[in-house]
Specification:
Length: 114
């Protein structure tokens, strides 16, 4: 599979000690933390403050589509899959419709994206 499965440092998003997800870079981690915090507040959760973003001690396996740069993410949180083995991530990629070197969005595009 010609994806780019590479263990990379990531930024963990935590709320009151619970892991909520991670971002492959600071900007994505901030965006995800705002989204998650907004969802929790909208659901009526009482929080002490916003989520905390901190650098992960370990590495994250992230699959990126070579055509568009989209990463394989958790379908509910859109966060990269954190703490999984490369084989597990490759298995999920095929389960979620990634084929060859293209994500499902690039496969369905009416014109080539690269």
């Amino acid at each position: 599979m010609p994806f780019l499965p590479a263990p990379q440092p990531c930024w963990l998003i935590e709320q009151e000690g619970d892991w909520l997800g991670c971002g492959r870079d600071w900007n994505l981690a901030v965006w995800l933390s705002v989204r998650v915090w907004g969802d929790e507040l909208a659901a009526g959760a009482q929080t002490v403050g916003p989520p905390v973003i901190r650098r992960a001690d370990g590495l994250c396996v992230q699959l990126l589509c070579e055509a568009c740069g989209r990463w394989l993410a958790d379908p509910e949180t859109l966060a990269p899959l954190h703490g999984m083995s490369r084989d597990d991530v490759l298995g999920l990629a095929s389960e979620y419709g990634w084929m060859g070197e293209r994500c499902p969005g690039c496969q369905d595009a009416p014109y080539p994206l690269c």
